[in-house]
Every structure is written in structure tokens, then in C-alpha cells.
Amino acid sequence: MDSVHIQGVWIAERLQERMKGQENLWLAVTHLGDPKAAFLLVFPLVYFTSKRTGVALLWVAAFSEWFNLIFKWLLFGERPFWWIGESRLFLDREPNLHQFPSTCETGPGSPSGHSMVTAAVWWVVVSSLGSYLYSQTRSVVLSVSPYLFYLVLLISVGLSRIFILAHFPHQVVAGSITGFLMGVVLQRRVPEQRPLLFFMASFGLLLTALTLNAGLRLLGIDVSWSIALANKWCSRPEWIRLDSTPFSSLTRDCGALLGLGLAQYWRPGGWSMPWAPRALSLALSSMGLYHVHRLPLPVQPQSLFYTLFFIKFVMVPQIVMVLVPGLVHMFTHKMKKH
């Protein structure tokens, strides 16, 4: 794999050279591809456009990120920002590369989680939009346009991950292909009108991941090897964030799935609202999620951080599917009476 990694490093160097001065653009793109964006940004936007697609999106986001974590634990992928130093293959000519605030992720590198979750989540969006456009217009050209956007988005997110030294090119390609396949498969199994017990299976996902983790440790495999390397080679210690650890991803996914089940349990089918109340619900939900996301969590003890992180993502579907639309529905209903 050394030759593949070396080529990936030179590709990253050329990208940074040619895109000098565009760092903010590529950091914005990599934030758009962050799995958190699927839960906090894309989910409310899609849900208030199409409830079924919104539920499918949350479902696919959680499962694709969970599978990404399992793949990472099994594949032991390196990340460029630490491999360059660890490999000791660049002593004669060290590449001219820079790290960024989003570079220092602590999980293994293969496959790319940003590319995988982006490919899975946005497949749900563009395939639904493409079908809707064709049903309304019968225009093949118009219905294909979302898929062109999808391709551009995947390429952009992948380039951003290579640019900031978070991934090698082959990890981006693997993540994009795997995410696309997962999006196609999982979209056909949207959990609508399921009993709450079905969503309690989120604890099964948590238990499965923890069992795999424990099993690898019993085999003498240190599953936290990547965290030590990230801490060693990150150029700025403050860029190491606890919410980028593999266990944070796991608690986010399990929390979101449980929250989805609770939301459908409290209000099966949601509320039927015209476009204006939906737009208001979207705006209020986005504001609510922004403030929930910005809430500072204590990083010590870590068990408390992960518990609160889990609760935070349980709340995401409650805010979007129950609390905000419920309040808007109640307010608009009273306005109609008067």
C-alpha cells in the first residue's frame, strides 16, 4: 500500500498548490459533507419538503455512518496527516503540505466517512427529486439534473477530504461507491409506521459495535491506535475534537434512530400543513438544531460526554418532527379560529 499512499500524498500536494487561497471554500465543502450536516442541516430541509424522504434520509444517514465505523475498525486505514510522518518515506523530500482545523480526525481512514455518508444520504434526496421532476414534467433532461448535482457534490467532497489531508484518494473512492450502494439498498426499507420497539434496536447497533470492539481487543488489536497517531501528528492540539472519535459517531447514529422511533411514536404521520407553516417550521427547526449543536458538552468524564451527545441526537428528530411542527400547527390553528 505504500505506493498508493505515496501517490495520494503527491496528489494532495498538487491540490494544495493549485488551490492556494481557496482554503475557506474547501473547508466549507468538507463541512457540508460532514455526517453531522446530514442530521442537522439536510434532514430538516428535506423533511419539510417530503416527510417520507426526510425519514428515509435520517434512516440512511444513521445506518451508513454506523457501517462506516465498522468498516474502519476492520480495515485499519491510515490518514495522510499522520502517515507522512509515521512512514518515514519522505526524509529526502518532505511534501509541502498544510493541515487545517478539520484535518485531525481521530478515527481510521478507510473508507472516507464524509464521502460514504454523503453518497448514501444525497442519493435518497436526488433519486426522490429526479422521480418527482419526471412525474411532473416528463422531461428526461430536467429529471437527470439532480443526478449531475449528485456527481459534482461527491467529487467536491472527495477533493476537499484529500485537500485537507484527512483521506487518501482511494479511501474517498471506496467511501463514495459504498455509500451509493447503501443509499440504493436502504432507501427501499424506510421504517414508516413501525412500533417503538423496532427503534429500540438502535441499542442493538450499539451493542454490536461494542461487542466487535471488545472482540478485537481480546485478539490483541488496539482499536484506539488511530487516536494516538492523531494526537501525535496533528499540528495543533486544539484541532483534536472528542466529537470526531469513532464512539461519537456510534452514539450519534444510535441516538438519531431512537429519536426517530420516539418521534413517530408521539405523532404517527406527523402534521399535514400548507407550505407557509412548513417554511416556518423549517426555519424554527433549523434555529433549534443550531442552538442544540452549539451547546457545549463537558469532555470529562468521557462517559458523561457520550451520554449527553447521545441525548443531543435523540432530540434532533423530536425537534424537527414533533415539537416545532406541533407548535406551529397549534399556532396556525388558533389563528384560523380567530
Automatic annotation (TrEMBL):
Descriptive protein name: Glucose-6-phosphatase 3
Pathway: Carbohydrate biosynthesis; gluconeogenesis
Domain Phosphatidic acid phosphatase type 2/haloperoxidase: 53-187
Record-level GO BP terms: gluconeogenesis; glucose 6-phosphate metabolic process
Family, similarity comment: Belongs to the glucose-6-phosphatase family.
Topology in the lipid bilayer: Multi-pass membrane protein
Localization terms from the record: Endoplasmic reticulum membrane
UniProt cross-references to Pfam families, sorted A to Z: PAP2
SMART domains per UniProt: acidPPc
Entry keywords, A to Z: Endoplasmic reticulum, Gluconeogenesis, Hydrolase, Membrane, Transmembrane, Transmembrane helix
Transmembrane segments: 25-48, 55-75, 116-135, 147-166, 172-190, 197-216, 304-328
Lineage: Eukaryota, Metazoa, Chordata, Craniata, Vertebrata
Active site: H114, H167
GO cellular component terms, A-Z: endoplasmic reticulum membrane
One GO MF term: glucose-6-phosphatase activity
Binding site for substrate: R79, R161
Domain of life where this protein originates: Eukaryota
Top-level class of the enzyme under EC nomenclature: hydrolase
InterPro entries assigned to the protein according to its UniProt record, in alphabetical order: Glucose-6-phosphatase, PAP2/HPO, PAP2/HPO_sf
EC number(s) given by UniProt: 3.1.3.9
